[in-house]
Amino acid sequence: MSYGRSVEVVETAENVRRITITVNGERRVVEVEPRLLLAHLMREGLGLTGTHFGCDTTNCGACTVLFDGEPIKSCTMLAVQADGHEVTSVEGLGTHSELDPVQEGFQAEHGLQCGFCTPGMMMASKALLNRNASPTEEDVRWALSGNLCRCTGYQNIVKAVLWAADKQRLSGPAAAGDTSSEEHVS
Amino acid sequence: MTQTAPVTPSSSQALDEIKIGGLGSSRLRVEDSRFIRGRGNYTDDVKLPGMLYMEILRSPLAHARIISIDTSRAWAIPGVRLVLTGEMMAQRNLAWMPTLSYDTQAVLATDKVRFQGQEVCVVVADDPYIAKDGCEAIDVEYEPLPPIVNPEQSAAPGAPVIRDDKQGQVDNTCYRWEVGDREATERAFAEADVVSKLKLHYPRSHPSPIECCGSVADFDPATKKLTVYMTSQAPHIVRSAVALIAELPEHMIRIVSPDVGGGFGNKVPVYPGYVHSILASILLGKPVKWTEDKTGNLISTGFGRDMYLDGEMALRSDGKILAVRMHADTDQGAFFADAQPSKFKIGLMHSTFACYNIGTGYITAQGHYTNKAPGGVAYRCSFRVTEAMFFQERMVQAAADDLGIDQAEFRRVNLLPDDAFPARTPFGFLVDSGQYDKCLQIGLDAIGYEEFRREQAAARAKGRLLGIGISTMTEPLGAGNSREYDILGIKMFDSAELRVHLTGKAILRTGAKTQGQGHETTWAQIVSHELGIPAADVVVEEGDTDTAPYGMGTYASRSTPVAGAAVSMVSRKIRAKARKIAAHLLEVSEEDIEWELGRFFVRGAPERGATIQECAMAAYSNMPDGMEPGLEGNAYYDPPNLTWPFACYIVTVEVDPETGVWDVLRVVAVDDCGVRINPMIVEGQIMGGLTEAYAMSNMQFQTYDAEGNIVGSNYMDYLIPTAWETPGFELHEVVTPCPHHPIGAKGVGECAAVGGPAAFVNAVLDAIAHTGVRNIDMPVLPDRVWTALQTHQDVSGAPPVRNG
Q: What is the fold of A13-92?
């Protein structure tokens, strides 16, 4: 298998790179083909199937993960480019027993239907809230404009993110993020 | 939001239905718990030991003869396990397969390719990268043939015959169909004061769920059992189709539709890719996974629409509609692969004008083969009703303009009055119920119609172009009744099976298949409504043909009207048995037992009761003598009629006269879908539909150039609105319970996608009414609006698209 799971590959062994990557806080050493996409490594090599392939062209955002804290589309990044970096996927949101406010918000405000875009949508939302604890509706719409949803019409997704922001502000540490509105270019 | 609180059953008191998550509760969705954790289980998440991966080589040309295929270089790649060609399929009599519309479709091309993206070869390998390498290494030699990209070219004398594989096919006609009273319609037109005419094209659009199609076929050589995990909205139809096509015994086929990442009609048909993966697994004795990429999905799987209309209305000068005459040409692509009831070659197009009293009418239709992807699926609609209602509402707007009557007033004059129901339409439908005037008035009041007209006039004086568009419609949802509706001869009923366990908890399975509609949440609410079992105590499973009762699946807004009704009916069967048990427990005769939510009690002594949970316990531990143990049952529901929701959508826009760009100012939606099981979910469905309506009117379409190259083959070309463009929605409701549905519910999931587009387009045309332009084809792109503003001419969007 070239999915970066083992070193048993015979035919392509000479073409394998060893990379070190911190995924959801856990340091992983994997061997991958240089052409392997990060999203494939996440899904197949590491078994983290919450990261989805939607469009293959960086448009839909179903594969959004946090890369050193910034949202990126993992379907068009090579796994080798993640060498030495930190990646957070939906599986790293919240804990076994406690949900992240973003996850709670999506359920509370009916921000998902088929659920396929949801992990990417939540990771982009998380990135927004990490840098802006009090986003406006416009901030949310802009921050999520790289993520497509075919089911909801976005209105409830926006509500979900605002719900999470409220919850985070009320319950989280006082020092969370910049509260100023963001600049948009439209 | 209502959270379902734990409920302690009490044998002395009825339950509060909202508290137990019953009918009308905005119960939060149970399926969300896995989705928000990234623990959904979609087809591409299925991973089996020893699994191989499949990739499809597609045709780069729209129409060409295949001269040769050389697969030797692909076979030579380490890790390639199988290369399939059309010739190999033909040896197994599998090169062609039946479509859901009694046509045939190539599984792998043998003689010719007939559209760009058609499946030519298949490679199976140890991983998907090697499978792709294998496809790259196949050499195919083609002899190009002239491509046909619209019905006009298709019907032209001397046009090359696309389907020369079919005996007796001498031209490119796919079907002809007609309905209505031709002579009465002609008489009405002869008497008309005004005849209003409109020509337009509803562009080809793709449902494009974010999750593409895919399958994992797993044939076990030891047991001979075939299990297929696949992205299907209708797993039972697939099982029967595989049994018929592949001649495998049906009891040895298990279709599992796990979580589905959106369907919208795209995942109803059986696609070649599924068949390839099945055959590859049978040949190799190993599981084979096919995961379609976005381009494969957009260029080869079921599209929607691509219909041309010639519409005419006979009108009296006082505003009364006397008759409607329509001719529709549909571009079917290379294979007639509509997923629709067998009898109706152009779906339920003849539901057009069902909300109006139109006197009489006549519709003709012709299907055309072209060198484009096959399909014509019910893209978020009940079989072509989207085109029916779009044409209707565009014609209504044009007619009002031609008569010089206000568009709202024109509708008021012609909409069916409340006492008209049940109302027979000139095309044979029976519309069940509605309060059309009320819905329209709520919409007009919400948008502030008169005030907007004043604002519009004031803005016009300053050179600003504001517009308001209305769309009112009813649509037939919930096929079918079995007399009229079948797919491949299988009647369009649906089913539910309910097992109540010893402790009063239950499992429910249905023949439907959720793809985001929230069945796991809402079906439990129906059980809760009927039995008083808290919704949290009912688990819902769908999509596994080994366990679920036989049903026709989820599309055409049929789940609530049909499967939902079956859930009600099976719950009532359970209640009838529980009543006998209650009589036994309370030591009275069954006639003396009364029911209230969650409990039976003795008539005249309401403090003496037995809860449904106590009855469940007794069904396994203390049943009356002679009674069969257990508390379970099933129900197959054959609806007496379709359900007829009504909607009024009103949109206001501002058009920039310099650029043709238009912005949505407000969207008001008034939906009457009868009784709402879960208002939160219903509103979610409406907002999703409105977004697709906005998308189709504004940006989303597929077209073809003169060479047959598709435009809109990936998300860089195929534009889907983001959170940034999508307008906000203001929702209102009216409730007219469906008279024939067990809980009074009607379908709703698709109403806004069906009725919405005309409201947006009517609004833009209203904004530029001063130009006299009658039509701009969807999507109403800025360059089309700008052209209309400059030339004062209608703007066609029909293919071929201009190059450069």
A: Ubiquitin-like (UB roll) (3.10.20)
